Every structure is written in C-alpha cells, then in structure tokens.
C-alpha cells in the first residue's frame, strides 16, 4: 500500500469516531476533547500502524507544526463541531501533506523504476548466464558425444579383447593337448628305448647262444628237443650250417607262408637252398642228401587250406640221393595222416628244376609247367614249391597236394624231417 492511500484512509478513520456534524462552531483552545480525539485517532492509527507496520509520526505532524489548528467543540450529544474555515484549514494541511506525500511517491516510483532498470540489468545478467549455460550445454553435448564415441571405442576394444581372450584360451588348450601328447610321446620314446635295450640284450644273448651252439653243433634237432629256433648243425665232411628246429627233434626243410620268397629257381639254388630260416625257405637238396644219408629219417608234411582246415601226412622213411643221383627220392616208407598220400607217385623220382628236367615226360618240362621244382613224374600230384597264391586258386602252377589231380592252392605248408630213432 502506498503512503498516499494510507493518508486517505487515515482521514476517513478519524472522521468516524469523532462524528463531525455538518454544523460545527469554531471553538478556541479547548484542548482536552481535542486531545482525546487525537489520542483516539492516534490509537486508531496505531492500530493501523500495527497492521501496516509503518511508523508515522502522525499526531505530532498534524497537530503540532500548525498553530492555526481548527477548534473542536463537543456538545452533549458528543458531536464535534468544526467551523468550515477550520475544516478548510485542516484540509489545506492535509492537502499539503498529500502534495508532500505525492512527491515522496514520485520519489519512490523513481526508485522503483531504478530498481526495475536494475532488474533489467539483472535480466541482462540472466541472459548472459543463459548464454553461458547454452554454451556450456553445447560443450556438454559435444563432450557427451565424444564420451559416447569413446564408449563405442571402449566397447569395440572390449569385444576385440574378448575375441583375443577366446583365441588365447583356445591356444592354451591346444598347448595343453600338445604338452600332453608330448608327454605321451616322451613316455613312448622311453618305452621304446627300454625295449631296444632289452632287444639288444636278447640279441647279444642269442649271439652268445649261437656261439655256444657252434661249439655244440649237432647232427640233428633232437638235442634241441623242446626248443624251436635256429641252431647249428654239423655233418661229416660237410661245412656246418644253420637249421630251423621245430621242437620234438623236427628239422624244418621247407616252409611256405605268404609268398614273400620266390620259389621258381634253378638247380643250383635248389641244391644250396634259399630263403629265410624264420620265414619261407628251402633247406637245399645237398643238405637233405647229407642228413638222410647220415641217419634214417621220417617225413612230416603239414598243410593248411584257406578255409582254416589243417591236414597232415606222415611218411616213416625218407631218403634223398646224392646230386649225381639227381637228388632222387629214394625212400618214402609208409604213409599215415588225414591228408592224401600225394607223395606216393613221386617215389623213386629224380628232382627237376626248370633248368634240369628229370621228369617222365619227354615233351613237357614239368618244372616249367607247374612253375616249381619237385620230384616230378607225369608230372605231379603234389607241388609244394609251386607259385604262391594269396587266395585259393585252381591252378596247375599253384601249391597243391591232391591225389586226384585237382589244383586247389594251399594257404601254407611245411615239410620237416626227424631221425627215426626219435620215435618212442
Ligand atoms: C486511547 O488509548 C489509551 C491507552 O492506549 C486509552 O487509555 C484511551 O482511553 C484511549 N482513547 C480512546 C478515545 O479510546
Ligand atoms: C499495537 O502494537 C503494540 C506493539 O507492537 C502492542 O503493544 C499494542 O497492543 C498494539 N495495539 C493494538 C490495538 O493491536
Ligand atoms: C523484473 O522483470 C521481470 C520481467 O521483465 C518481471 O517479471 C519482474 O516482476 C521484475 N521484478 C521486479 C522486482 O520488478
Ligand atoms: C549434459 O548432457 C547430458 C546428456 O545430454 C545430460 O544428461 C546432462 O544433464 C547434461 N548436463 C548439463 C549440466 O547440462
Ligand atoms: C616336450 O617334451 C620334451 C621332453 O620331455 C621337453 O624337453 C620339451 O620341453 C617338451 N615341450 C613342450 C612344448 O612341452
Ligand atoms: C575246407 O575245404 C575242404 C576242401 O574243400 C573241406 O574238405 C573242408 O571241410 C573245409 N573245411 C572247412 C572248415 O570249411
Ligand atoms: C588232421 O590231423 C591234424 C593232426 O592230428 C589235426 O590237427 C587236424 O585237425 C586234422 N584235420 C582234420 C580235418 O581232421
Ligand atoms: C511521537 C511523538 O513525537 N510524540 C510527541 C508529540 O509531542 C509531545 C509534546 O508536544 C511529545 O511529548 C511526544 O513525545
């Protein structure tokens, strides 16, 4: 509320309690009633002051400075009479005050304008701040953008890292596997080394055995009764030679197993023998002559078919003549066994090779015809030195043993001899 308004209200308030009458008579210096009224006015004003909380030296200003104050007269009806002139004077006083206050108002308005202009400068400041804020926000946006870019980069890097981690793990697993393999390999190598050592030891032992055998060379496999293996044999007027002993005194003279050795050979080779004693071989006709000449022998033939069937043939006398006799099958003795007696027709026949034809045919080379070497007659019912076939084959060139001239090839055969006195 403006000060001017206060003054107007004050006038109205002061009129009511004093109940001015229209016809007032001017009184001269009757203080007490005026005092009261003024005090009342003062009370009222104080009341107002309390509400507005503006302290105004109201009474003293209205009463004191103007000596020409209006005179009041209060009658029995408590009516205050004021002369018109006094009232005018009073009005004048108030008007002056009003003017004075208008000036104050103007002053205050100016102040307000000033303040408003200050507000304007505040606004400027605000604008400035807003501009700064905008700049800041822009920076923030830029920074936020950069930050999000960095985030992306970090994410990409994390992805790469995880990929590398996965690869690393895989490599580590691989390495572990390799290490394990390596360990296994090392173990295997150690094992093999140990085995090589054992074998080297055995070899040395075997060599020693052989040397011992040399000293104890025998004329048959009988002394190596229980031991199959390769042993040294010595006969009169003949250089010592190695033979394959089969156990129970048997000496192997011929063996077919797998076709690893070629048996289509000439006379000299059949005389001297060929092949490997622990594999396929033929002992040699000269040794057969020497062995059977030294003491009587029996013959055992073992035959295996491709279907697994096994058959045997025994002949209780076996003698081979000298080279000058063409290594003739001089004696065969009696046959027994569950195979056929397929040697019988070859009894008393000379040995034939493709380069030494001793067979009964004049117009056929039986060794050539049967692709082997045997005691051929017209030509053969057995052909154990024939061509090796890996499966059962019907061929006159094959290894066969049949009294009815059928040529089913055999899977494996073995011929062995033993001194007759070994029989008990
Ligand atoms: C004014 O106030 C005083 C005390 O504050 C009081 O004694 C007096 O009676 C009042 N006057 C009137 C006219 O009410
Ligand atoms: C006015 O205010 C004063 C002090 O604040 C107080 O003592 C007085 O009683 C008030 N008067 C009225 C009428 O409220
Ligand atoms: C400052 O100015 C604003 C806008 O012009 C106005 O809204 C506000 O009331 C003013 N403040 C004062 C104290 O004058
Ligand atoms: C900065 O920008 C981010 C995202 O736009 C927002 O969340 C944040 O409140 C801003 N900060 C300021 C101080 O403006
Ligand atoms: C493989 O094994 C050998 C012998 O045990 C060792 O010297 C080598 O360091 C191993 N290599 C790896 C990759 O483990
Ligand atoms: C194998 O074949 C022979 C001759 O064909 C036959 O006598 C024998 O029973 C057969 N054995 C088996 C086990 O099939
Ligand atoms: C033939 O006799 C041998 C030796 O006694 C035996 O091992 C084989 O099983 C016999 N074969 C047949 C088909 O009876
Ligand atoms: C508020 C004020 O200043 N009151 C004064 C009014 O005048 C009398 C005497 O004239 C003083 O006693 C008051 O203190």
List keywords for this structure.
single chain; 424 residues; alpha+beta; Gamma Fibrinogen, Chain A, domain 1; ten-stranded antiparallel β-sheet; two-stranded antiparallel sheet; 7 helices; 12 strands; rod-shaped; binds 2-acetamido-2-deoxy-beta-D-glucopyranose
What's the helix and strand layout?
Blueprint: H1 3-18, H2 31-52, H3 58-63, E1 72-74, E2 80-82, H4 84-215, E3 229-235, E4 238-247, E5 250-256, H5 267-272, E6 274-275, E7 281-282, H6 285-294, E8 297-304, E9 310-320, E10 329-331, E11 335-336, H7 366-369, E12 412-419
Antiparallel strand pairs: 1-2, 3-4, 4-5, 5-7, 5-12, 6-7, 8-9, 8-12, 9-10, 9-11
Helix pairs in contact: 1-2
The structure holds 2-acetamido-2-deoxy-beta-D-glucopyranose (8 copies).
One 2-acetamido-2-deoxy-beta-D-glucopyranose binds at residues 36, 39-40, 43.
Question: What do you see in this structure?
Answer:
It contains seven helices and twelve strands. By secondary structure, it is α+β, with helices and mostly antiparallel strands. The chain folds into two domains: 124 residues; 198 residues, Gamma Fibrinogen, chain A, domain 1 (Gamma Fibrinogen, Chain A, domain 1), CATH 3.90.215.10. Strands 3, 4, 5, 6, 7, 8, 9, 10, 11 and 12 form a ten-stranded antiparallel sheet that branches. A two-stranded antiparallel sheet has the order 1-2. The longest helix has 132 residues. It starts with a helix and ends in a 5-residue tail after the last strand. About 10% of the residues have low confidence.
């Amino acid at each position: 509320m403006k000060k001017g308004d206060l003054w107007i209200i004050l006038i109205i308030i002061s009129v009511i309690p004093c109940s001015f009458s229209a016809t007032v008579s001017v009184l001269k210096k009757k203080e007490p009633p005026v005092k009261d009224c003024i005090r009342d006015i003062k009370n009222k004003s104080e009341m107002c002051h309390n509400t507005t909380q503006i302290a105004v030296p109201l009474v003293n200003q209205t009463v004191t400075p103007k000596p020409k104050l209006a005179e009041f007269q209060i009658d029995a009806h408590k009516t205050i009479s004021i002369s018109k002139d006094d009232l005018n004077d009073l009005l004048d006083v108030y008007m002056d005050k009003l003017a004075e206050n208008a000036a104050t108002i103007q002053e205050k308005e100016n102040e307000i304008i000033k303040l408003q202009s200050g507000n304007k400068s505040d606004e400027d400041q605000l604008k400035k701040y807003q501009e700064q804020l905008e700049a800041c926000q822009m920076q923030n946006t830029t920074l936020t953008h950069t930050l999000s870019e960095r985030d992306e980069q970090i994410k990409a890097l994390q992805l790469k890292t995880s990929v590398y981690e996965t690869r690393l793990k895989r490599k580590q697993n691989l390495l572990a596997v390799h290490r394990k393999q390596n360990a296994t390999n090392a173990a295997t190598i150690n094992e093999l080394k140990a085995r090589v050592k054992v074998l080297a030891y055995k070899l040395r032992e075997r060599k020693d055995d052989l040397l011992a055998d040399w000293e104890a060379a025998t004329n048959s496999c009988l002394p190596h009764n229980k031991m199959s293996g390769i042993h040294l044999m010595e006969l009169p007027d003949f250089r010592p030679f190695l033979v394959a002993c089969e156990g129970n005194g048997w000496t192997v003279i011929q063996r077919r197993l797998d076709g690893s050795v070629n048996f289509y050979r000439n006379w000299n080779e059949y005389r001297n023998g060929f092949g490997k004693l622990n594999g396929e071989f033929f002992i040699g006709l000269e040794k057969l002559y020497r062995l059977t000449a030294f003491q009587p022998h029996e013959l055992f033939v073992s035959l295996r078919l491709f279907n697994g069937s096994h058959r045997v043939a025994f002949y209780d006398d076996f003698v081979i003549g000298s080279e000058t006799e063409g290594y003739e099958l001089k004696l065969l003795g009696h046959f027994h066994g569950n195979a056929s007696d397929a040697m019988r027709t070859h009894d008393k026949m000379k040995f034939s090779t493709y380069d030494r034809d001793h067979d009964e045919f004049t117009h056929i080379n039986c060794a050539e015809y049967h692709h082997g070497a045997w005691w051929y007659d017209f030509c053969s019912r057995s052909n154990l030195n024939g061509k090796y076939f890996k499966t059962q084959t019907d061929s006159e060139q094959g290894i066969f043993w049949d009294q009815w001239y059928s040529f089913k090839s055999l899977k494996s055969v073995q011929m062995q001899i033993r001194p007759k006195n070994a029989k008990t």
